[in-house]
Amino acid sequence: MSTIDPLRGLDPVVTAPKRLAIVALLSRASTNDFGFLRDHLRTSDSDLSKQMSALESAGYVSVTSPARPW
Known about the structure:
With 70 residues, the protein is mostly helical. The chain has helices at 12-15, 17-26, 34-41, 45-57. The chain has a domain at 12-57.
């Protein structure tokens, strides 16, 4: 009997626990800010930046910088 692997075909970029949590949070809104994600994920700035870069490189998210008031 052949067993089908339910995880086969899942992209490891998005299924890493922290990145999956980011995608879950972002699924509820079209935009969000860095501080909100950092605080809700209880992670450091550098770790969140790394995770977001991985998701952006894979095309899962688009990262923009806030407009500067000056």
